Amino acid sequence: MKKLHEWKNHPALQKGKDWKKWIGVALLFVLCFFGGRLAAQFVDTRLSLPANAGAGSSWGLSFQEEGKAPVGNASAADLKKLDAYYINETEDKVLYLTFDCGFENGNTPAILDALKKHKAPATFFIVGNYMESSPELVKRMVEEGHTVGNHTYHHPDMSRMGTKEDFSEELKSLEELYEETIGQPMAPYYRPPQGIYSESNLKMAQELGYKTIFWSLAYVDWNQDKQPTREEAFEKLLGRIHPGAVVLLHNTSSTNGQILDELLTKWEEMGYRFCPLSELTGK
Asked: Does the reported pTM lie above 0.85?
């Protein structure tokens, strides 16, 4: 009988060990490859910055704790690399008021009155229809120290704009009408219609010199047939307010027109102050 150490050194067994080594290396390679793919998918999902023009995502928020900043579906740090913003990561009680203006239905004058009373600067994101139909209100916004931003001319899904030329046309056509009417250039702030965006969109806006502005607080105020009550509005807008918030409201909301003076008063009583977007973006 051969000794045990002789059997261990048998060529056939040594060959088998070599095969095991190769199989082990192959399995390790496969695990690394698919592990890397899985990790990349996780990062893409976390950032939610779709690269393809036709693969837009809707801006979304998750409120974890009352009075605390929500978590966006992209981080403030990653967005800032593309000149995009949704919040000021600060403990300072500052707010940035923004209004989306799709059309005029009589509520904007009351909103402007409340802002003037509280000396609160705001940014109004307008579309082509608003510039065409309500030039006097746009002039009043500017005269009273507010900023007018670009919400595109036709309010399309901008993530479907396949070329920079098409993307640019939606912004520049409104820029030109604004400058022709107001007599000065439009502020370089862009808000994607419906909050739909892609990474390529953000890059296009950046290359055109725009800052993309999302939001960290909004509520369902745009449905004209189902306006929130005063109590419902205060529950959301007071309960979820947080330092550094970019607040999105709609000028078409009759509720906003009715409560804004009281809302601004309540925010002031909570220690908040109102700042222009330029403080957030640096421009």
From this structure: no
